[in-house]
Amino acid sequence: MALISCPECNRSGVSSTTNACPGCGFNIYKHRQKPSLSEIWKDICERTERKFREREWEKNQKEIKEREKKAHDAHVDAIISGIKMAEKNRREEQRKYIKPDISD
Ligand SMILES: [Zn+2]
């Protein structure tokens, strides 16, 4: 058994055969194991997948925002045309009550 320093908290005199650092609980057992090729590969795959998902998520967020903006614009257009139509109706309604010009 050898005494090592904890790679996480630098505590010295930690047994090299212990599973966890008595100071910070760092997993020395796992640290001691060299990662296998399949573990490295798995890690790469996971990171790549995460990156891909992040990009997809960002793309989706962008699309959602664009769709929301379009929906909002359409809503505003509908309100404006509603106001215009109401105004037009009001004017037509008013015209009915205007005395016809019979000065000639
Ligand atoms: Zn430690």
Fold topology:
Elements (H helix, E strand, L loop, with lengths): L2 E2 L9 E2 L12 H5 L4 H61 L7
Antiparallel strand pairs: 1-2
Walk me through what this model shows.
The protein has helices at residues 28-32, 37-97; strands at 3-4, 14-15. It folds into two domains: 1-33, no CATH class; 35-97. The protein has a two-stranded antiparallel sheet with strand order 1-2. It is built from two helices and two strands, in the order E-E-H-H. By secondary structure, the chain is mainly alpha-helical. Helix content is 63%, strand content 4%. The mean pLDDT is 89. It binds zinc ion. Zinc ion (ZN) binds next to loops.
Bound small molecules, deduplicated: zinc ion
Average pLDDT taken over every residue: 89
* Annotation field: number of helices: 2
Radius of gyration: 37 Å
- β-strand amount: under 5%
Largest sheet: 2 strands, antiparallel
Query: Rough shape?
Result: rod-shaped
Order of H and E elements = EEHH
Strand order of the largest sheet: 1-2
- Domains counted in the coordinates: how many? 2
Helical fraction equals 55-70%
How far apart are the first and last residues' alpha carbons, in Å?
122 Å
Determine the structural class based on helices, strands and strand pairing: mainly alpha
Which runs of at least 5 residues are low in confidence (pLDDT < 50)?
none
Count of DSSP E strands?
Answer: 2
